[in-house]
Amino acid sequence: MVEPTHMPIDGGLLKLSQWLSPGFPISAYAYSHGLETAIARGDVRDAETLGDWIITVLAAGAGRSDAILLCLTLKGDMPVETLAEMAEALAGSAERWEETRAQGMAFAETLRPMGYELDDAAYPVVLGQAARGLDLAEHTVAALFLQSFAANLVSVGVRFIPLGQTEGQNVLAGLHETAQSVAVAAAEAGAEDLGGAAFASDLAAMAHETQEVRLFRS
Q1: Residue 91: inside a domain, yes or no?
Q2: Is residue 149 domain-resident?
Q3: The domain spanning residue 165 has which CATH number?
Q4: Can you tell me the distance from the alpha carbon of 199 to that of 102, in angstroms, rounded to the nearest whole number?
Q5: How many distinct structural domains can be found in the chain?
Q6: What is the pLDDT of residues 174-210, one digit of tens each?
Q7: Residue 71, number of CB atoms within 10 A of its CB
C-alpha cells in the first residue's frame, strides 16, 4: 500500500484565505460601494459594463487606495493612527467611510478573542495589522484582498442586474490581471501615491445616500 504524500501548505496563506472568504463575518455582502445606484440608473446593465466598472474601481478608485494602505500597514513604517486618518480622509462619501469603518471594526472584533491586538480603523488598515505575522509578500496579500473586494462587487451584480452565476464568475476571472497588476504597484507605492480618479463610482456612492429604494447599505 502506497502511503499518501503530504505536501506542506503555507499556513499564512490559509489564514488569509479564511479572513478574506465570504463567510468571514464583516458583512461585506451588505455593501455595494455605490454599484446599486449605477445599476438602478442603467450605467451598469450587463456583464461587460459590470466588468468595466469594477476595473475602474480597482485600478483608479478605492481598490487601488485600499491596496496601498494595506501594503503601507504591512510594512509597519508608518504609525497605524496616521494610516487610519489617511483612510478616513480618502473616503469620498459618508457611506464609503461607514463601509470601510464598519468592516474594519467587525474584522477586529472577530480576531481579538483569537489573540490579535488590533485597532479600530478602516478595513485595509486593520487587515494589514493582522496580516503582518503571516510571512506573506505584500503583493500577495494585496492581490487576494483585491480579489475579495472584486468578488463582492461581482456578487452585487449577480444579484441586482441580475446575472447568472456562471456569467458572474466569468466577470471575476476577467478581473484577475487587473488585481495582480494593482497589487504589485501598491506594494511598491508610498503614501504620496494615495488618491483616486474613479469619479463615476464616487458620485454613485454619494447619490446612494439619498436613493429611495435600497437593498445595500452603500
Answers
A1: yes
A2: yes
A3: 1.10.4190.10
A4: 23
A5: 1
A6: 999 999 999 999 999 999 999 999 999 999 999 999 9
A7: 24
Closest by Cα among 63, 54, 77, 73 to 163: 54
The mean pLDDT value for 83-100 works out to 96
Range of the domain at 162: 33-208
Q: How far is residue 90's CA from residue 74's CA, in Å, rounded to a whole number?
A: 19
Peptide bond preceding 8 in cis form (omega within 30 of 0): no
Residue 47 counted as domain residue? yes
From CA 134, how far away is CA 141, in angstroms rounded? 9
Query: Does pLDDT of 1 surpass 80?
Result: no
C-alpha grid cell, residue 138: 505584500
Give the span between the Cα atoms of 101 and 28, in whole angstroms.
Answer: 12
> CA-to-CA distance for 40 and 33, rounded, in angstroms?
13
Question: What are the two backbone dihedrals, phi and then psi, of residue 20, each rounded to the nearest 5 degrees?
Answer: -95, 5
